[in-house]
Description:
Layout: H1 3-14, H2 28-37
Amino acid sequence: xxxxxxxEEFRRVLGMDVDVVxxxxxxxGVAQTARTDAxxx
Length: 41
């Protein structure tokens, strides 16, 4: 399943927007913010 498909499935099940991204693809500043804001499912 593509990341976009995974995001859509989480959105459908959880009823809220969910971003699914590999941290390695993010720039350093963005990755740090994403890790700070991340919520374990």
